[in-house]
Amino acid sequence: MKLIQPFPGWRPKTELVERVSSPPYDVLNRQEAMALAKDNPDSFLHVSKAEIDLPEQVSPYDKRVYAAAKKRYLEMQEQGILEKDPEPYLYFYRLVMNGKEQLGLVAAASVAAYNQNRIKKHEFTRPAKEDDRTRISETLGAHSGPVFLTYSHSSNIDEIAANWVANRPPVYDFTASDGVRHTLWVVSDEKTISDLVAAFEALPSLYIADGHHRSAAASRVADLRKSSDSSPDKESSSDRFLSVIFPDNQVNILDYNRVVCDLNGLSNTAFLAAVAENFTVTISPTPFKPKQRNSFGMYMAGQWYKLEIAQDKIDTTNPVAQLDVSLLNQYLLEPILGIHDPRRDPRIDFVGGIRGLQGLMDRVDSKEMVVAFSMYPTSLTELMSVADAGEVMPPKSTWFEPKLRDGLVIQEI
After folding, report:
1. In 79-204, where do the E strands start and end?
2. CA angle, residues 66, 70, 76, in degrees to nearest 5
3. Is the model's pLDDT at 228 over the cut of 90?
4. Structural domain includes residue 339
5. Domain holding 313: CATH number?
6. 227 within some domain
7. In total, how many domains does the chain have?
């Protein structure tokens, strides 16, 4: 089974693409999604976050949400809002944010390669979210939110991509409300498709940057389909998952910050004293955003602090242990705040760096949370080292920007 293959995508009509395509389901809360989709029945949020069209007390995991998603998805096909390409194609997808460009390939990636760790993971998944993505893919019979993959850049792939986009008109080219420009080219030429498939087949590995829940769900869906298939050894569309694959030298990682709702029974004074046992704690007169590894910002009771960890606390022989997110877990979150499993503990939440330090301050100042931690971004080199070692990072170690649009290209399974 080839690492990637073309597929006949379902796509919005060109004149509707700005109305249809939407931010990913997991970067918006319910209220934000409702506001964004208000007065726009064509928004793909009515599929990817169908709870916005149901009473507020209905859980996002209620069976009515999945039924509403399928209903709207089929309506969008029947109404011609979404149209299916006549043949299996690949697609080049360019994003531009703040003048920085990244050009990737939309393709159907191999579930078998994921299962065999040729498509490498670096995070565990949260069970509830994995169950949710499995149910939505099974209900829709489609993968609509792409998995963000990366690879060690290849001059061969770069050359094919640059030649195609320089000499062909795009089918979509628009700037979303957040200022990110999205451009898509359809790759319909058989030789170019063959060359791209072969070029990716020559790569040793791909790495999941963002989309661990979606890729894990795709693997589960493939297993479910095989268990009910009379010819389980024959490859089908469910043996692949929707992906956008970017070279590592174009990928942009932001910080992924933490907020905690209490101090585990400690007073502010006692908490600061406990933190000072493993960190140098300095009051910061302004909001503190770390500019290097092994330093952290902390916000509590209206005050920012700079935290620095002693170098003798860091195990530089272990690619996971030396990560800043691991150090914060090992020396602060677990021993002081009692957060032993960040994947499941409801006392901790995670805030993407795109929301800035103000996003952390808002959560604490509102009294929803008590303390916040700003992080230095995990690097792509660190991510690949962890994945190559067959290890996993703590949850929510990386935040990638810009985000890929949902509903731009959909893979039927």
Report:
1. 82-84, 90-97, 100-110, 119-120, 142-143, 147-151, 172-175, 181-187
2. 145
3. no
4. yes
5. 3.30.1760
6. yes
7. 2
Region 180-205 average pLDDT: 98
CB neighbourhood size of 242 (10 A): 27
Give the residue carrying structure tokens 């299962």.
Answer: 115
Q: Averaged over 51-57, what is the pLDDT? A: 97
Share of the chain above pLDDT 70, in %: 99
Residues 273 and 228 in one domain: no
- Read off the pLDDT band of 396 (50, 70, 90): confident
Helices (H), 246-392: 268-275, 324-328, 356-365, 380-388
The answer to whether residue 382 is domain-embedded is no
Is residue 69 situated within a structural domain? yes
Of 104, 83, 87, 84, nearest in space to 188 by CA: 87
H or E element, residue 306: strand 303-309
DSSP strand pairing (253-254 vs 142-143): unpaired
Range of the structural domain that residue 323 is part of: 256-376
pLDDT tier for residue 230 given thresholds of 50, 70 and 90? low
Give the predicted TM-score (pTM) of the model: 0.88
